[in-house]
Input
Amino acid sequence: MQRIQVLWPYADFRRLFVSQAVSTLGDKMVLVALGLLVMDRTGSTVDLGLVVGAQSASLLCFLILGGVWADRLPRHRIVVASDVVRGALHALLAALVFADALTLGELVAIEVLFGAAEAFFQPACTALLPQTVPERLIQDATAATRFTQRVAGFAGPALATALVLNFGTGVPFAIDAATFLVSASLVTHLRPRPRGEDPGIGRLSLIADARAGFHEVRARPWIWVTIAVFSVYLVVAYAPYLVLGPAVAAAAYGRAAAWGWIVAGIGVGTAVGSLLGMRWRPRRPIYTAIVVTVPFGGLLVAAGAGFSLAIVLLLAIAGGTGLALFDIWWSTALTQRVPPAALARVSSYDHLGSYALLPLGVVGVGWLAQQLGATTVMAAGGALAMIVVLAALLPRETRQMGQPGADTTTTRGKLALSKAAA
Output
């Protein structure tokens, strides 16, 4: 908490921090409320998959466009506009639920539009955060923001469940709409500091600006190799985690509810990792970030192999800690080493590349589990994940990149990095 005190005097950071804490709590509530709403209306997991898949597909389709506009326009204005649009959409959804007039087609349409607005928000907010604090505090600001997201991940689902059980499925969406308006009102007052914006951005076409953003990714092997590796990593590790968890817990420990304890262990680990990320600055941050993700694969192997629940819980905490630290160090490295004028576009390529294969992975994992068994697929996925993620260490820059001003790279690597920062 001492690091939060260092950040708190910066008014723009305070406003963005509080806005995202409030908004993220609403988002986490909706994750549960959406499932409960669909199951209450249709009782079909296929319908739920259609709704969630439609939102995710819309998000992925518009990410690059969102990144381009976030580098063209003042980023806080895009965040405000996205908040207003998303708030209006979920206010409409709540009204339809209260009126008992919601159809599945309307729900899909609302979530498609919601995903599109989210695609503009994510790169803009990622690139906006560094403009609210001095350069030396970027990692601290990133870690503090991630910590609030982890806390919201605990509180949001529990609050949503209680609200739905007592007041109905429309209430969480109404509250989420209100959180977006609170967020927008706070971000409106931001006056982000200049951070190397390119006055030439926007003079070319949208496609040309998108290509320029892709060039920034392609010119840095440590970025594009890591994105490519994590695209596969999410398929072999995160897809089994999302789809097979309860079935594996039931087979290995006799009750599906044991998966709840494992998920809670990961949640504890991500909170611990976020707190560690405020202070820990490893000499080689990207190298260390890759290595600390390995325990998550070990968790999947242990759960699939039926190791004792105590061992699995310890691995869950270690895995969650590693994933949180990777997120913080990776985001900080992008912020420090990508030209500020292209940061939103690079961030959008990062999100798109990393998650592009996940929908196929979710479907494929479900099919494989039917053929081979859930425990076998999860254990194999975890083992493969531990191998795949180490491929991200192939670029020399990834292995040798140090903290800014203290790089341990070779002369050739230093020249490449200096050009990237220019």
